[in-house]
Amino acid sequence: MAEQVPAEATSAARPRLPRAEIVERVDITEELMVLKLKPEGPYTYKAGQYCTLGRRGIERAYSLASAPEEEFLEVFVELVPLPDGVLTPIMFDMNVGETMSIRPRAKGIFTMDQRCHKHVMVATVTGVSPYVGIVRSYLSRGDEGHHFYILQGASYQDEFTYRDELEAIAREHPDVVTYVPTVSRPDDERNVGWDGATGRVNAIVEEWMERWGLGHEDLLVYACGHPGMIEDLKERLEPKGYRVKEERFWKQ
Ligand SMILES: Cc1cc2nc3c(=O)[nH]c(=O)nc-3n(C[C@H](O)[C@H](O)[C@H](O)COP(=O)(O)OP(=O)(O)OC[C@H]3O[C@@H](n4cnc5c(N)ncnc54)[C@H](O)[C@@H]3O)c2cc1C
């Protein structure tokens, strides 16, 4: 990942990076958590961008689920267990009150494209983060005229961290947000009682776009998270003339 800085690049000669203190940690499952962080100084960003967090000189990118209008930064993190994961095993051992380094500037162009008004936002698990930030910011600004159709895929129902929030927004603002979570392993015992959509998110996008009566016009598809999902989605949609904006969380 181009944005990630190898540990050896952070020598003693480097200027000290700003710190961000963990002010809240919510464990969703053993491999998923939400952190709220308080940067030591002003931190400006656009909804949908990512921050670069670090610990012990290891830095990684994290999409912001918070809106710029909020007091704290919020990230939704998935553990990549040892021996593959490097920073996330360290992060999962961290607690409220501890600090991480934060690059002074947020980055990324995975932001809302104001030129169109129908936004089909497809995510795998943590890939929902930028959409949460975009929707929160949109609502807090009182903007009008846009509709966000959020489709989130996960293996298990307990991985839909922002489900309550997104469903509540969808109930309150049905003209602004439509939210469909889908589980890819409906027969697994972790999904007992699930009565929502099933199937991989990339496999059901077209069916849902048809149900919602969405044509090509004035529409942009966003894809965030698992590179395999993004690849497949683009193969399905681009030949049919849809535009797809993407944010891959890792290389395959
Ligand atoms: C723009 C951008 C935004 C990102 N936003 C988020 C975010 O909001 N939440 C989040 O959890 N991660 C996000 N990531 C991934 C994040 O930067 C780290 O790569 C991830 O947290 C794993 O870090 P690590 O140091 O433990 O492992 P790494 O050293 O980064 O990766 C170890 C190995 O695991 C693979 N890998 C990385 N992430 C995953 C994963 N989730 N599932 C399976 N394999 C993986 C890598 O390709 C590599 O082979 C983002 C990445 C980018 C480029």
Describe this structure in words.
The structure is a single chain. By secondary structure, this protein is α/β, with parallel strands linked by helices. It folds into 2 domains: 96 residues, Elongation Factor Tu (Ef-tu), domain 3; 131 residues, Nucleotide-binding domain of ferredoxin-NADP reductase (FNR) module (Rossmann fold). The chain contains 5 helices and 12 strands. It has a 6-stranded antiparallel beta sheet with strand order 4-3-6-1-2-5. Strand 3 and strand 4 form a beta hairpin. The longest helix is centred in the middle third of the chain and has 13 residues. The protein is globular and about 50 Å long. The site of flavin-adenine dinucleotide has 24 residues, from strand 4, strand 5 and helix 1. Flavin-adenine dinucleotide binds next to strand 4, strand 5 and helix 1.
**Computed structural class:** alpha/beta
Q: What ranges have pLDDT less than 50 throughout 5 or more consecutive residues?
A: 5-11
Mean pLDDT: 95
CATH architecture of the largest domain: 3-Layer(aba) Sandwich
Sheet with the most strands, sense and barrel status? 6 strands, antiparallel
Name given to the CATH homologous superfamily of the largest domain? Nucleotide-binding domain of ferredoxin-NADP reductase (FNR) module
Distance between the termini: 11 Å
Along the chain, the helix and strand elements come as EEEEEHEEHEHEEHEHE
CATH topology of the largest domain: Rossmann fold
Heterogens: flavin-adenine dinucleotide
Compute the CA-based radius of gyration.
Answer: 18 Å
Helical percent range? Answer: 10-25%
Strand line-up of the largest beta sheet: 4-3-6-1-2-5
Based on Cα principal axes, name the global outline.
Answer: globular
Provide the CATH top-level class of the largest domain: Alpha Beta
Total of helices: 5
Q: Which strand-content bin applies to the residues?
A: 25-35%
